[in-house]
Amino acid sequence: MLRTIIVGTGHHVPERVVTNNDLSKLMTTSDEWITQRTGIKERHFTDGTECGTDLAKVACERALQMAGRTPADVDLIIYATLSPDHEFPGSGCFIQPKLGITPGTPALDVRNQCSGFIYGLHVGDALIRQGLYKNVLLVGAEVHSHGLDFSDRGRDVAVLFGDGAAAVLLSPVEDDSRGVLASVIHSDGRSARDLWLEAPGCFGKPRVNLQHVEEGRHFPRMEGRKVFVNAIQKMPEAVQEVLARAGQKVEDLSLFIAHQANLRICDGVAQRLGLPPDKVYNNIQRYGNTTAASIPLALDECVRAGRLKQGDLVCLAAFGAGYTWGAALLRW
Predict the structure, then answer these.
(1) Is residue 259 among the annotated active site residues?
(2) Is 289 known to be catalytic?
(3) The domain 179-331: what is its CATH number?
(4) pLDDT in tens, 51-86
(5) Which uninterrupted H or E stretch holds 168?
(6) Domain limits, the chain
(7) From 135, 230, 262, 289, active-site residue
(8) Residue 77 C-beta-side C-alpha neighbours within 13 Å
(9) Which of 93, 114, 266, 315 is catalytic?
(10) Integer Rg of the chain from CA
C-alpha cells in the first residue's frame, strides 16, 4: 500500500520584524491589548518589494535540500495562498520558473485561506496514493502586509497577520505504518461573510470600484467572536474524526500543531482535546497569522529543532475563512 510521507520541510520569512509597539504608532492599540487578545508579540513584514512567490522560492529550496531532491524531481506543485501575486494566473505558475521546475509540470493553486495547507495535503496525499505523482511540492505563502488597513478602522484584523512562506515535499512510501494515516476537509459557506475580503469582485461593475476603495471594502473584515466560537468547536471535531479513522486516540499523539490564528484559539482547542502543553507547538507569538503558511512553518521549526522522531504520531488542524476546516494525522 502506498502512503504519503513528508521527506523535506522548509520555511522563510522576511527580515523585517514588526512589533506590537510598532503598530501602536499607526493605530490606537498597544502591546498589552494585542498580547491579551491574540498572544502575538511580533510578526514579519516584507520590505514592500517581495511577493509571495519570492518568499516561497526560498522555503521550497530549503525543503528540497532537506529531501535530497532537485527542482527537476518535482512532478506537481500545489500552492496554497489567500494573497496571490496576481489575480491570475495562479501563483503556482509563477513559482515554477523561479525554482527552475521543468516546464510542463502541473501547478495547482488552492484558495482555502487558513485551511489551505490541510486542503493541499489532502489533495496531494490522494494523488500520490493513486500512483499519479511521486514528488509533490506543497507550499503555503502569504504577503498580508500589502493588503491590511493600518488604521483604527482595520485595527482588529491588521494586528493579526504576518508575511511568510513554508513548504513540504510529499513522496510515496510502500509502508502502511508511516505517513498520512487519515485526513479530512470540510466547509460551511453559510458563514462565508464572517471572514472575507469583499472587493474587488465581479459583484461590482467595474470590478475595481473607487467607491469600494473609499469604503474600505478591499480590506479584510471579520466577525471575531463568531470565528472564535466556530474555530474552537470545529478543529477538535476534525481531530477526533481523523483519529477515529486511523484507530488512534488523543493520548497517542506525540505532537499537535493547530493553524496559528490566535493563541487563545490554539489554547482552547488543546484544552478541549485534553492535550498537555508539552504535546502542543505554537509560534504565533513570533510570526502572527501567516494563514496557509502557518502549519508548515511550525512543522519545519519542529523538524529542525528535533521535536519529531520516526514513529511519532502528529496531528495538524486548521480552521479559517469559508468557513473551511480540516485535520490530518501522520505517523512520522
Answers:
(1) yes
(2) yes
(3) 3.40.47.10
(4) 999 999 999 999 999 999 999 999 999 999 999 999
(5) strand 164-173
(6) 3-173, 179-331
(7) 289
(8) 31
(9) 114
(10) 19
